[in-house]
Structures are given as C-alpha cells and as structure tokens.
User: Fold this.
Amino acid sequence: MTSDPRAALVTLTSALERHLEASASKRGEDDPAVVAAYEDLADAFEAYDDALLEAYGEMTPLTVYEEDEIDDHYEDEDGDEGLYSGLDDEEYDTDEDSDEGSDEDSEDDLEDGGGVEDGDGVAEADGDRSRR
Assistant:
C-alpha cells in the first residue's frame, strides 16, 4: 500500500481531535463513541507510521498495543496485574530515610574533620569539591 505521509498525518491529526472530543463528552466507562474514536486513532496512527516507513524509511517511537499485549506487558514480578506507576517500593528513598546532600551534613563533616575547606570557600571531602 503506497500512501502519502502528509495525507496520513492529516488523517492522524483529525483522529486525535475526534478522540479528544469523544473523551471530553463521554457517557460512562465504555462509551461507544470513545471506543470508536480510540480504534480510529489506532488505525490512523498505524497508517501514518506505515506511510512514513515506506516513504522515508523512518518510524515514530510509538507502538499501538492490543489489549492482550497490554495485560502481558504490565503484569508485575509477583504475577499481579496492574500498571507500573513509578518507582518500586525498594527503589523509593524518602528524605526521612536518607540525609544525603543536606547542608547540615556537609557543615558537620567540616567541623568533625570529614572535609577540609580551603581559603576560597570550597569544601573538599573524600576527594569531592563543592562550593559552600
């Protein structure tokens, strides 16, 4: 199928606008207008991506997933289904857990001999230099 990428882009833009309009005026979780706009948008995007690839050998960095692919993609390590919403608990460090980088620590280090301040107001601790 040979398609003009510019025409496919116009179709994609229109599909995005229709999806926004349907989403803004939806009536319930499974509103048929939103579902139809979603499917039209996915089709328009795939047509644009295909036209871009065929004409210029380029692709967008986006992918349209089918519903079963989404479920497989977002299943976590424990087998629980759900969307990944950021850092995992063990990766999340609160200010209460860590005092790294606080000004009080750097001043305490200097007073306790953990760092040395040279004459130009630059503190040096363990080989790191930082402006005070």
